[in-house]
Structure formats: C-alpha cells, structure tokens
Amino acid sequence: MQEWQQSLVQKMTHLEVQDTLMLLINFCPSSHTVQRGTQQLSHSVIDYEDRKSEITKAEKGQIVVTTIDGKGVPMRSGGKKMALVGCGYTVGLHNRDVNEVMAALFNDVDTQEKSLSSKRPLPIHKQVHTSLLRDQQDSMQPSMDAMFDVLEKDYRQRDECHHQPHILLADGQQSLWNEMRRRFGHHSNHVEILDLLHAAGYIWDAVSLLTINKCEQNTFAYDYIERLLKGKVDDVIIELDLIANSEELTHSQAKKLNSICGYFRNNVSRMRYDQYLKAGYPIASGVIEGACRHVVKDRMERSGMRWSLVGAEALLSLRCIDINKEWKSYMSFYMQQENERLYSKVECTLSRTPFLLINPNYIENRIFYGA
C-alpha cells in the first residue's frame, strides 16, 4: 500500500492520490498519512545511494559531464528556498560549427535540416540528484556539501582514472564554480564551460538597452552571439563597455550594461566556445535545465502549493529515485532495511526462546535451542 501511495505521489498531488486509490481499491488514506509515508520512505535514500551498484564507465570517444543549477521551491513560511539540482551523465563527442548552433538558437529551419545528417549523440547513464538541506543559520552549505559529495562519487565511478575529458557546465553563479573548482580543480582533465544559453540571455538583456526596435535587437543579438561562438569574447566586452561609458545611455541603462560586462569578464575563461565546438564538447545546459523543470517545477510549483523544508526535501529525493528509473530497486532496498530494523531483534530473541513456547508438542521434552 505504501509503495502504491508513494509511486503516485511522485506524479500527483495528495488529493489526486486519494481519488485514484479510492477509484482503484475503494480505500482513501488521509493526506497526513500520505505525507508521513513520504518522509518515512525517504529515510533510506542516503543509504541506498551509498550502496547501489556502480555506474557504467565512460568509453573511449565519450566524455563525462557534471552540471548543476538551482531552482526555487515555494515555502509555507513565504518566498522560495533554492533547491540544488545536479546531474552527471556520459555523452559522445559531437563536433559542429557555428552555423549549426546559430541555426538552433534562431530557429533557422533550413540550416537545421541540413545538419540532421550529423545527429547529436544523446546523454546516457544520466543520474539526477537534488538537495534542499539547510543548517541552523539557514545557509545552503549543507546542500552544497551533500550535492557535491554525490557528484564527486558519480564522476569517480564514470572515470576513476581521469582518462576522458570532464566537462563542468553551469551558469554564472560564482558559489557553484568555487565549489566545483575546489572539488574537481586538481584534475588536469576538467574543462569549465559557461552555459551558452545564459550567456545569450545576457546578450539579449544588453541589446534591449541599446534599442527598442525588435528587428534591430534581433540583428544586434545575432551579431554578438555569433562573435561569442567564434571566440571573440573580448571584442564583445570592449564594444559593450564603450557603449556603457558613452553618453548614448541613461545612468540606469549604463549601470545595467556595466553589470553585464562584468558578468562576461568574470566568466571569460569559461567562454572559449570556438575551442569547445571544435573539440565536440556540449556548451548548453539543456539537461540540467530540463531536470530543474521536470524534477522541481512540474511537481513542486503547481497552483497554490506551499511546502515545509522537510516535506520538500523528502519528496524531491524520492522523485530523483523515480526519474533515475530506480524505483523498484529502491523499494526492495527499503523493505529489506525495514525488515532488519523491525524484526532483527525479534529473530534474535526467538533464537534464545525455549522451544516449548514455540511448539507445544514438545512440552514434555523441554528442549531449549542452543542447549
């Protein structure tokens, strides 16, 4: 019954779970029972992650990717708390040119159709993880520690000897890059890449300050993004910086444009997109963006939903188990853990119990186990 309940909870609201179970088996557990079951079931997730079988190692011609992002969860106390979503996966190298990427960004159908012959390899052995842990000061450090412990283990299992390139892919959040560098920076094969979609978003923010004409914005954005992809990041920064310090913009606009230039300066070492494309590395974080939407938003941000910290952490950890296609494996592990917790002492006691209490037919013999 608990397995049925919690399997449905991963995809449905508590009310929908109640309605579904009433329809199928004419039984309706209370919402409190379902919530309590989620928290109870999640208690074995850490032990399961520590003991589950290793991930298939990366082969020659494949690379290991570690990517991470944050997604807000609406809380009962008001506002949102950031949940970390991390993902490790293996993928084949895929060389492409600037025109292919620009066609994908600007929906150039003709160019996209011409590039279909070089089909992009799909991520394999993908593992998604989340963490919403907080300490007494309400800082995210427990989430950081828990998430990167898991991501480190994930990477070691995929490429323990560091033979393959290791791609670290994220947006511009400096705290994430600092932690990635601390955890993985001692490996000579790691490559830091700023997500192109975030960089392109900053370009669009910049061009919106330069003109209100949509056609001109599209032209400017196309030119700047193309230059980023060709490795001319410094040229883009210099040009935007000159505009920000000219008299063409208001004080407020110039301040925003200077902030955008600062973002590019801080991440210029992670924006060698021409080299990444030539090497066949991924440059966009579609995998982690999809995970943030699917794991967090699709379940946790439905209309009117508010969560406690404990309840959200429990459900998110179980959603990752389900999304990683390990639900049956986890339930077997959980039931084994529960059997050991509940009955190990009973079995130990029975092994020392007089046999006559178990089997009255031998009452005359008064034989004891172990005697």
Quick synopsis:
The chain is an alpha/beta fold. The chain has helices at residues 2-9, 14-25, 31-41, 45-51, 98-105, 109-114, 141-158, 174-184, 196-210, 214-229, 233-244, 251-266, 273-279, 286-300, 309-323, 327-350, 355-358, and strands spanning 62-74, 80-92, 124-131, 166-170, 190-194. The model is unreliable at 355-371 (pLDDT under 50).
In words, what does this structure look like?
The chain contains 17 helices and five strands. The protein has about 375 residues and is α/β, with parallel strands linked by helices. It folds into three domains: about 1-50 and about 325-350, no CATH class; about 55-195 and about 285-305, Nucleotidyltransferase, domain 5, CATH 3.30.420; about 195-280. A five-stranded mixed β-sheet has the order 3-2-1-4-5. The longest helix is centred in the C-terminal third of the chain and has 24 residues, at about 325-350. The chain is globular. The model is unreliable at about 355-370 (pLDDT under 50).
List keywords for this structure.
371 residues, alpha/beta, Nucleotidyltransferase, domain 5, 3 domains, five-stranded mixed β-sheet, 55% helix, 12% strand, globular
Low-pLDDT stretches are 355-371
Give, in order, the helices and strands.
HHHHEEHHEHEHEHHHHHHHHH
Q: What is the number of helical segments per DSSP (H or I, 4+ residues)?
A: 17
**Strand count, sense and closure of the main sheet?**
5 strands, mixed
Q: What is Rg?
A: 27 Å
Q: CATH top level of the largest domain?
A: Alpha Beta
Question: Shape, please?
Answer: globular
Strand pairing plus helix content: what structural class? alpha/beta
CATH architecture tag of the largest domain:
2-Layer Sandwich
Integer tally of domains:
3
Please state the average pLDDT score.
Answer: 88
* Helix content percent band: 55-70%
Strand content: 5-15%
